[in-house]
Amino acid sequence: MTLATLGSLTGYSAAQVSRLERGKSAMTDLAVLQRFAQALDIPPQALGLAPATGTQPDPLSQRTGPYPSLPAPTLGTPGRQDGEDPVRTRRQLLANLAVTAAAAMGAPVAGAAPVKAEEAQLGETLVAGLRDAMLGLGRTTPDAPLDLLSAELHRASADFNNCAYSSLALRLPRLISAGHSSTGDSSPVLAQAYLLATRIFIKLDEPQLGWMAADRARQFAAAAGAPVAVAEAARQQAVLARKAGWHDQALTLALNAADDPALRERGNAGNAQRGLLIQCAAYTVAHQRDQSGMRTLTSEATAIAKSFGAVTHLRDTNGGFSWATVQLHLISAENTAGDPSAAIAAADALAPQALPTTERRALYFTDRAKAFAQWGRRDECIRALLQAEYWAPQETHARPAVKSLVSGLLLSGRTTPELRGIAARTGVLHS
């Protein structure tokens, strides 16, 4: 559906619809809101509106249980591996705007968006599935050939990079269980699967499970003779150590791994991993409020990235390494070092479209929001959160860091319709 078509169905021009998509205009007309719901095939009750006159509530909308609806647990071919379906994204964004509008007009927030409430629970569902798979509590899986495991790993990585938590919540736990059940040498697959699980646990603030997954990743990577994966496991352990407040140990883990001669023997992939480790060390130094040291290490990582030109290495497995990803880390590093204005300047120097994945672009806007919050610029913070939600609704709604930021905004100043909307969708505001 084009902007012009959607506009003709709702009484808006294409330019006005575009402004709604980009958060430049608020939707405040109840009749127009109803027309958007009809045009986009969104149940009115999902937007906090009464069903259209003469219609019965959608029976499927009444069946929502305490856990999110997830895709059928079958192995299959992947859909779009990268990028977003523009029609799905348009429906998602305008549904978000509609919930915000409903909140602004006094509609009850608790029942405004059951789908969003489910997304707020997706993180818990994903963590529970991974925990059970790691503990061997999942159902027994048949012996799968290694090529099928590798294909599923590729799909799980794509799910993570696209922030498709609903699919990932089934695929990755199933992959870990199948990897352990395999009679072949599944060490390479399990190493990458556990690295992916570690990144998820870090995002969802589950450090105990994160340590467990990172340790397993390192062991399987060593068994597979994969020095890049060993180094990536060390990087994730450094992140966990930093989050525990063990800054010296985190720095040692990252820099020791970066100095491993085995990385230099792995060509561009090894050098890219060295760059990831050095930028990890830079962020750790930022936590010690050493802005000069942070910038020195960041410059070293930047030099490695520039040697690759416009190429992004390790995109599918380790988040990618390029000049753009180093600049992304600089945003949060400057903010953590205590200089939010420098963080915003770093963000302004980076076009989010230059980042390799949806997950990285969502992180860009989340980090930008954190910097604006620290700087005391609430409106810009909320706009950045809405942009993060545009790129990655499931991740934005599930991440504890976002929930914490939204809670802080609710408690620290005036509550705008936009803030109430995103608070409802993240599960922070229940009534």
Automatic annotation (TrEMBL):
Residues 53-64 have a biased composition (Polar residues). Residues 47-85 are annotated as: Disordered. InterPro entries: Cro/C1-type_HTH, Lambda_DNA-bd_dom_sf. PROSITE patterns: HTH_CROC1. GO terms for molecular function: DNA binding. Coiled coil: none annotated. Residues 1-47 form the HTH cro/C1-type domain. It comes from the Bacteria. This is HTH cro/C1-type domain-containing protein.
